[in-house]
Amino acid sequence: MSSGLGPPTAAVRPREDRATADRVALSAATARGARSRTEEVRAWLAERRRAHVFEVTRIPFAELRQWRFEEGTGNLVHRSGRFFTVEGMHVVESDGPYGDGPYQEWQQPVVRQPEVGILGILAKEFDGVLHFLMQAKMEPGNPNLLQLSPTVQATRSNYTRAHRGTDVKLIDHFFRPDPDRVLVDVLQSEQGSWFYRKSNRNMIVETVDDVPELDDFRWLTLGQIAELLHEDDLVNMNARTVLSCVQYPDTSPGALLSDAQLLSWFTGERSRHDIRVERVPLASVRGWKQGVEAIEHEDGRYFKVVAVSVRAGNREVVDWDQPLLEPVGLGVSAFLVREIEGVPHVLVHARAEGGFLDTVELAPTVQCTPGNHAHLTPEHRPPFLDTVLDARPERIRYEAVHSEEGGRFLNARSRYLLVDADDVPLAPPPGYTWATPGQLRALTRHGHYLNVEARTLLACMNATAARPRGGQ
Question: pTM score, two decimals?
Answer without folding.
Answer: 0.94
